[in-house]
Automatic annotation (TrEMBL):
SUPFAM superfamilies with a match to the protein in the record: Ribosomal protein S18 (SSF46911)
Keyword Ribosomal protein: yes
Organism: Tetranychus urticae
Protein's name in the database: 28S ribosomal protein S18a, mitochondrial
One Gene Ontology MF term: structural constituent of ribosome
One CC-aspect GO term: mitochondrial small ribosomal subunit
One GO term (biological process): mitochondrial translation
């Protein structure tokens, strides 16, 4: 079911109601929690999340910049740890808002852009690609 907002104005009173209507995209809707007890990320089979996917991981951050508790997000233990790690990376790169108690940096490097090589590939390391005989 989808809700449509209906606004009714009577004299000086404005009433906003949510009326349930059938969706024309019902076949593409995600099943509700009652039908499938798996966590939201496992249910959607999202395995290769990155810290740059802020539209997805930003849903698990509250308005203060802190991660919501596991009971509210309904994530499994594995996905909760992964999302927690990704949120920390995104906050370090300033892609997501930082909490008030974020530790201040010792130098001025915190104002510069920072990125992660994710995932790390062996081909990016010159010591693995160049043969030992050339390092003399």
């Amino acid at each position: 079911m989808v809700r449509k907002l209906v606004i009714e104005e009577n004299d000086n009173v404005t009433v906003v109601k949510g009326v349930e209507i059938d969706s024309d995209r019902k076949q593409s809707l995600i099943p509700s929690v009652e039908k499938n007890p798996a966590c939201p990320l496992c249910r959607l089979n999202l395995k290769n999340l990155s810290y740059t996917d802020i539209l997805i991981i930003g849903q698990f951050v509250d308005e203060n910049g802190k991660m919501m508790p596991r009971e509210d997000t309904r994530l499994c233990n594995r996905q909760f740890g992964i999302v927690k790690h990704l949120i920390r990376k995104a906050q370090t790169c300033r892609l997501l808002p930082r909490p008030k108690d974020w530790p201040e940096a010792a130098g001025t490097y915190d104002k510069l852009n920072s990125y992660y090589m994710y995932p790390y590939k062996r081909r990016d390391d010159m010591f693995w690609t160049v043969k030992d005989k050339y390092w003399k």
